[in-house]
Amino acid sequence: QTFFNKSVDFLKRGVQRTFRRETLLKRLPFTTWLPKYDLQCLEGDIMAGCTVGLTAIPQGIAYAVVAELPPNYGLYSAFMGCFMYVIFGSCKDITIGPTAIMALMTLEYSGSGGPVYAVLLCFTSGIIIITAGLCNLGFLINFISKPVISGFTSAAAITIASSQLKGLFGLSYSSDGIIETYDKFFHNIGKTRWQDLTLGLSSSVVLLIMRRVKDIAAVRVRASDSRWTRVWKKGVFLVSVGRNAIVVLVALVVAYCQRHEQPFIITGEVKPGLPPFHPPAFSADVNGTMLTFGDILADVGAGVVIIPIVSILESIAIASAFAGGATIDATQEMLALGMCNLAGSFVQSMPVTGSFTRTAVNATSGVKTPAGGIVTGTLVILALAFLTSYFKYIPKASLAAVIICAVIFMVDYQVVLPIWQAHRLDQLPLWTTFLTCLFWKLEYGILVGAGVNLALVLYGSARPKVVVDVTAMQDGDDEAYVLVEPQSGLFFPSVDYVRTSVNKVGLTTASSRMTVVVDCGHFTGVDYTAVKGIKSLCNDFEKRHQPLVFINVSKGVRKGLMSLNTDIKIAASQDELRSLLA
């Protein structure tokens, strides 16, 4: 009865905390910036929203191609996240939508079921991410270190770029894994279509040049610039950040003009109009077999969990990068991302997350609040409503160029040297993750990398550094005792190692006669295994009739030691240590 009453009280307190006015306002961040919204914010958000929209439309189509879905599904994925993040998002720069990594993960797990599987994965991802946010499980992301994330994103970027070589060269083949991709690429390279290759390479060169234009000092807006100078510099900036849309539009026009004798491999028919708003299908007809919701989840397998984890990782990493030193509310970002996926599944979206490319464009375009997403989402809806009949003429080579030029900058080679200089052992999870993701599976790579990282942390906990020093008392020159100082806490993984180390010091350095003093200054607490280990250590010294003293013992550690029910010597001060040694 007491347990039941305490449980009810705990639930009541939880409900009261959840539905307090302060908590509700915190979970609806737009209530913070909306009352302060002004014309300056409106101008910045419209400019940034339009710029991001020009990037989102061609990238949405391109990422649908990566996921091997119909092109319209890329656009379906590009607008609902923008709207939902306005309500629930806490970082003004982030834009939610399809990304290269999520497209690749979607292909990995929805390949057999096509759009039905992709949309259902978006739904389940939203549910899982929201649940994780409500349970405050954001701290689990901290167990995946920066080297693991760098290895994962770099391998994913190379995998995605490699998969687009066939589109760039005008080839047609299917492959699984990077080794098979390059094997079939070189096997089919003799069938290269020079028209597609020319268009693809020229598009890539133009994209790379236009990417650098905005960074030229001569085109940066200065306070001393005249009005017309500011206008043309702003124009150059818009051309630079809207390069994807410009290149795809030019390629579309060229292909449209040649539509009677089409020299390029084009995207093909794109379903016109907006998607219907309804829940995702919870059953699917795959190769003549009707699969239930449970059958689909069994077919997808680990993807049900892996895709939400990758989505959270990517979004939190981007939020941290653009936070400007501010603290990120991981719980709120998870709730926002979960709502974006959940709502997106009702408009036939594939799984989405934060986009680094579009977030960078958003930030450099001067966005003021998350309301810029309304403009971006509206542009995508307008494109779906009025322009889809022309999208079928977009050459696949130009889309391949857009994807390759976007992902090659995700290869995080810059971290190798800093990691080597900071902590060389971190190279192990970095390269383990990278190679496993590249040559096996992305999802396995991130798990293996996290496992290696965790093993290194546990090894450091199980094998702490032990400093040994022969100390003489201040008023004499004779060696008085041997000081042993473990450099980390004492818990069950390190108990045997510390016991062995202290015994070794007692037998060698202390010659089985000098007093051994254990400095517990680094012990924040002890568990049951540690207490039993200390008792065994005391017994070892007692058998040799060798004194053993513990100093710098915290209150929590002292409580654990006193539970031994044995004669243990604890010195609270230097004077006590002197008396014990005497």
Automatic annotation (TrEMBL):
<dbReference type="InterPro" id="IPR036513">
    <property type="entry name" value="STAS_dom_sf"/>
</dbReference>
<dbReference type="InterPro" id="IPR011547">
    <property type="entry name" value="SLC26A/SulP_dom"/>
</dbReference>
<dbReference type="InterPro" id="IPR002645">
    <property type="entry name" value="STAS_dom"/>
</dbReference>
<feature type="transmembrane region" description="Helical">
    <location>
        <begin position="440"/>
        <end position="459"/>
    </location>
</feature>
<feature type="transmembrane region" description="Helical">
    <location>
        <begin position="73"/>
        <end position="96"/>
    </location>
</feature>
<feature type="domain" description="SLC26A/SulP transporter">
    <location>
        <begin position="42"/>
        <end position="428"/>
    </location>
</feature>
<keyword id="KW-0812">Transmembrane</keyword>
<feature type="transmembrane region" description="Helical">
    <location>
        <begin position="398"/>
        <end position="420"/>
    </location>
</feature>
<feature type="domain" description="STAS">
    <location>
        <begin position="482"/>
        <end position="561"/>
    </location>
</feature>
<feature type="transmembrane region" description="Helical">
    <location>
        <begin position="300"/>
        <end position="322"/>
    </location>
</feature>
<feature type="transmembrane region" description="Helical">
    <location>
        <begin position="371"/>
        <end position="391"/>
    </location>
</feature>
<dbReference type="GO" id="GO:0016020">
    <property type="term" value="C:membrane"/>
</dbReference>
<keyword id="KW-0472">Membrane</keyword>
<dbReference type="InterPro" id="IPR001902">
    <property type="entry name" value="SLC26A/SulP_fam"/>
</dbReference>
<keyword id="KW-1133">Transmembrane helix</keyword>
<feature type="transmembrane region" description="Helical">
    <location>
        <begin position="235"/>
        <end position="256"/>
    </location>
</feature>
<dbReference type="Pfam" id="PF00916">
    <property type="entry name" value="Sulfate_transp"/>
</dbReference>
<feature type="transmembrane region" description="Helical">
    <location>
        <begin position="334"/>
        <end position="351"/>
    </location>
</feature>
<feature type="transmembrane region" description="Helical">
    <location>
        <begin position="46"/>
        <end position="66"/>
    </location>
</feature>
<dbReference type="GO" id="GO:0055085">
    <property type="term" value="P:transmembrane transport"/>
</dbReference>
<dbReference type="Pfam" id="PF01740">
    <property type="entry name" value="STAS"/>
</dbReference>
<protein>
    <recommendedName>
        <fullName>Sodium-independent sulfate anion transporter</fullName>
    </recommendedName>
</protein>
<feature type="transmembrane region" description="Helical">
    <location>
        <begin position="116"/>
        <end position="141"/>
    </location>
</feature>
